[in-house]
Amino acid sequence: MPSLLDQRDKDSRHGHASVSSQLKYIVGGCRRQSPEKSTKKTMNKPLLFDSNFECGNLGKVACVDRSDCASEYDISIRPDTRNGRQRIWWYFRVKNAMPEHTVLFNIVNSSKDKSCYRDGMTPVVRSTMHPKWTRLPTKALLYYKDPTRRSGYVASFTFTFNSPEDIYEFAYCFPYTFTQLQEFLGALTAKRLPFVTRERLTNSLEKRRVDLLTIGDACRLRPLSKRAQDSADVQLAFISARVHPGETPSSFVLEGLINFLISDDVDAVRLREKVVFKIVPMINPDGVVAGNYRCGSMGHDLNRCYQTPKKWCQPEVHAIKKLLAELSQNCPKRLLFYLDLHAHTTSLSSFLYGNWYKNEGKMVSQWVFPHLMAAHADDFSLYVWHVLSGRCNLHRYQVTWDVPLEQAEHRNLLCVFLCTTMSERNVCIGIIAPFRICCFVVTYSGMSLQRQHRF
User: Fold this and answer.
1) In whole angstroms, what is the distance from residue 333 CA to residue 315 CA?
2) DSSP calls for 47-74
3) Straight-line distance from the first to the last Cα atom of the chain, in angstroms, rounded to the nearest whole number
4) Are 49 and 92 contacting, i.e. CB atoms less than 8 angstroms apart?
5) Which residues, in sequence order, are bridge partners of residue 420?
6) pLDDT tens per residue, range 333-369
7) Rounded Cα–Cα distance for residues 307 and 445 (Å)
8) How many other C-beta atoms can be found within 10 angstroms of the C-beta atom of residue 46?
9) Alpha-helical regions (H) of 283-408
10) Which residues pair with 280 in a beta bridge?
């Protein structure tokens, strides 16, 4: 007898997505005996779903299989707040499961046809008895086109429950919550490191804290305008993450970067002596808490608001742009680097997006950085690197040309996106290796390939 997902794959190729008829063979994770051989009927309680917690996202649940086994559920993703087009991130809890009960979950209304699920990525799961997030086996997931549904593509995965007392959590990929960030920053502040300061950049619309970290030599943490006499050799790097709430790998990567910068590693010590790092770890905390994928609490994609951000509805972007303008005015030729961290739902490896410049020297500098990444990071893809022009609302475009505009041609600000895939392997490898290269480029603003550096 073929497995449930094998049958689903076969049916999808023939244009028949429903496999409800196959569920009569599955009860409690075991093959059900034929009626003539079975003398006892097995019944399973319906599962109880919940998403009323931080980062949770669950729109609607429908029990497809209404027989006694209750082994198939269609799950709809709740759209982003005030934006019905964005439906990618999902995260929910399940309880009331029977032991050895195998259930088929169908995520039925994703807003994207393409997905890393087609390339081996799988959802993650944890429970109260096993609190560490783990990926489901590849064979448990099938991503396929369903001609009977308006959404087109469906992600179906099976899971066998072990304990009725356990509460299980399932998510699109590894969650990274606002609370998790605050705990990390709180532990960092408690260390009282002389080269680290934490301050509130602004508040979000829902009055959540938007943090700004400054990492650098203690004598250089004074306002830049007040230390011009001792800052001739100091450079400034600006780094941010989580403008898109559902791109959780960017937070893991940024946490790895911060841990490296505050460490006793000889390269980290040298960087703190030469570079002041300004870091905004989570630009969109409201969207993160709400369980959105791309938007904030007003339904705006904050990554498309950098041209004319409004303080009353986009305070996070407004504060960042104001800070960059101040830094640029105080040290117009020392703000050399802006790295914005993202994650991608369809592309593999780590890669960069950049800008198109009329200045040939700036274009050459921008090309050197991805080549350095490719030379030293196995998970970085040089083939995905490309530059874009003309999309003036984009974050990388506005930061480069509008901070301030009259100085843009005279500054060597490199503004790029570092994207990682949603898959576990790339994120884990990408935490350490790429960022030594990133810091290397910031430290040596000439970006010479002839310089040697220890990795």
Assistant:
1) 27
2) PEEE--STT-B--EEEES--STT--EEE
3) 52
4) yes
5) 343
6) 677 778 888 888 887 777 777 777 777 877 777 777 7
7) 27
8) 12
9) 285-290, 315-330, 360-376, 395-401
10) 240
